[in-house]
Design goal:
Blueprint lengths: L9 H10 L6 H11 L4 E5 L5 H15 L7 E6 L3 H14 L7 E4 L6 H9 L1 E6 L1 H9 L10 E4 L2 H6 L3 H9 L6 E6 L4 H10 L4 E6 L4 H4 E7 L5 H8 L8 E5 L2 H13 L4 E4 L5 H13 L4 E5 H4 L9 E4 L6 H8 L9 E7 L4 H11 L5 E2 L77 E2 L11
Parallel strand pairs: 1-6, 1-7, 2-4, 2-5, 3-4, 5-6, 8-13, 8-14, 9-11, 9-12, 10-11, 12-13
Antiparallel strand pairs: 3-15
Helix pairs in contact: 2-3, 3-4, 6-8
Bound molecules: adenosine monophosphate.
């Protein structure tokens, strides 16, 4: 199918062309005509299926036909996390680059002043987390009486995070006559009841199943004594094919230690975990996306905020005890139709976890030997590992670090080395979204247009 058959505005199609998309993903092919027809929609689609474009492209097309009036807001997109808001914003700016629509973001953890100003000015589209938005709405900022479109993105996660009361309060202040789109990775009873509450005779689209990471991600295992893991990671990184690398550790301090060591060896590295401030996390993500840092070291929970395209390799520095975490981790690469590599460093104390995973995914992962690597180096007096399973650790005792419980996840922004797309040499810092997308996290504000980088295809 061709994007041109879907009824999108020609300027939106031009931006889609710029992004390097050849054809609509299944969720896009199914959802775009429904949204253009003005109907409410339930989209059951996981992240990585192209769902952001599935609602953004028709939304922009519809907004081109109306007109904005000063101080009014025409479309509201609610998302569970700041990271997701920033990423949707990047997508919207890219797809709207040939339109003159204004976009602003609203989310917590950063200064509210630019957001208040943006709400006062009005915007065609506001992308927000429910908590901060409700706070500002409660103080009478923003005129929401002209809202024509409401999008609830990752609704299941918003419910998991306890946002239902805030969403209710926000929606209560919106006009009843509006189009409402709800996206969720799963269709639970709770989600069904939410759709009954907020949507009117919606159409459902449930074809957004993300491709099985096993099909798009090449997975391999390097068995290695724990004390040699840092050296092995460094050795692996000598290969320039490891272009954009997400490294997972179990513990925050392990992440810091690895990052320090890589930095000392001239490899630009950032970290993402819950001990870091919101601004630090946003900066780490945007530098990673822009290619300013090559390696991002993250813990599982912090990594739920990651939905970066173009990640060439996921490295499990620590092997995850929970098979679901493994699947989640490797799904950070090989997104949509792109490809990726997942490399696991597995020490003897983790071999049970590896076997449990193999039972879970019904396949054996190939074991590899790292060429030119010295496996015989002796253990130092203090093993410089990531801090997982200190003495006394056993397969049942590991867990998450108790303080590491912040936030949600995903993000996006095409990039990579696709057909017609920029190669690695093009990886310069990218301009970030005017509102909240910037490094240092100014938060809020508005913008028009944007840049976009195509994806990595093999
Ligand atoms: P999402 O499900 O919105 O997180 O989308 C994941 C990624 O898929 C986006 O960041 C885009 O880079 C990419 N994408 C979206 N639509 C297409 C398409 N039609 N063809 C190829 N890649 C796409």
């Amino acid at each position: 199918m061709d994007f041109r058959q879907l009824g999108l505005d020609p300027r939106v199609l031009r931006a889609v062309d710029d992004a390097g998309y050849k054809e609509p993903t299944p969720i896009q092919a199914a959802a775009i005509p429904v949204i253009l027809s003005g109907k409410d929609l339930i989209g059951i689609a996981q992240t990585g299926t192209g769902k952001t474009a599935a609602f953004t492209l028709p939304l922009l097309t519809r907004l081109t036909t109306g007109h904005s009036s000063p101080g009014h807001i025409r479309a509201l997109i609610l998302a569970p996390t700041r990271e997701l808001v920033v990423q949707i914003h990047e997508n919207v700016r890219a797809y709207a680059q040939y339109l003159s629509l204004s976009v602003a973001t609203v989310f917590g953890g950063v200064g509210e002043k630019p957001q208040i100003e943006a709400l006062r000015r009005g915007a065609d589209i506001i992308i927000a987390t429910p908590g901060r938005l409700l706070d500002l709405m409660g103080r009478r900022y923003g005129n929401f009486s002209g809202i024509q479109h409401l999008v609830l993105d990752e609704a299941d996660r918003m419910l998991d995070m306890g946002f239902l009361p805030a969403i209710r309060d926000v929606v209560r202040q919106l006009p009843k006559r509006r189009q409402t789109l709800l996206f969720s990775a799963t269709l639970s009873r709770e989600i069904e009841s939410v759709t009954r509450e907020f949507l009117q005779t919606p159409q459902s689209v449930e074809i957004g199943r993300r491709s099985n990471p096993a099909e798009t991600v090449a997975q391999s295992v390097y068995e290695v004594p724990r004390h040699l893991k840092p050296a092995m990671l460094q050795h692996l990184l000598r290969d320039p094919a490891l272009e954009m690398v997400l490294v997972f550790t179990q513990m925050k301090h392990g992440a810091d230690r690895i990052a320090r060591r890589l930095e000392q060896n001239g490899i630009r590295t950032a970290t993402l975990h819950s001990n870091r401030s919101q601004n630090q996390r946003l900066r780490a993500l945007s530098e990673f996306k822009a290619g300013v840092v090559r390696v991002l070291v993250a813990t599982d929970i912090a990594a739920r905020g990651i939905d970066v395209d173009g990640i060439s390799h996921v490295v499990n520095f620590d092997f995850p005890p929970a098979p679901e975490d493994y699947v989640h981790r490797i799904g950070r690469t090989g997104r949509a139709n792109a490809v990726g590599d997942a490399i696991s460093l597995v020490s003897p104390d983790e071999s049970n976890d590896l076997r449990a995973l193999e039972r879970f995914i019904h396949r054996t992962l190939p074991r590899k030997q790292l060429e030119g690597f010295d496996y015989s180096a002796a253990a130092p007096a203090f093993a410089a590992d990531s801090g997982r399973r200190p003495s006394g650790g056993h397969p049942g005792s590991r867990g998450r670090s108790p303080g590491n419980s912040s936030q949600g996840r995903p993000s996006r922004a095409p990039q990579g080395r696709g057909p017609g797309g920029p190669g690695p040499a093009d990886r310069g810092p990218r301009p970030q979204g005017g509102g909240g997308g910037g490094t240092g996290g100014t938060g809020g504000g508005s913008s028009r247009g944007g840049t976009f980088r195509p994806r990595r295809f093999r």
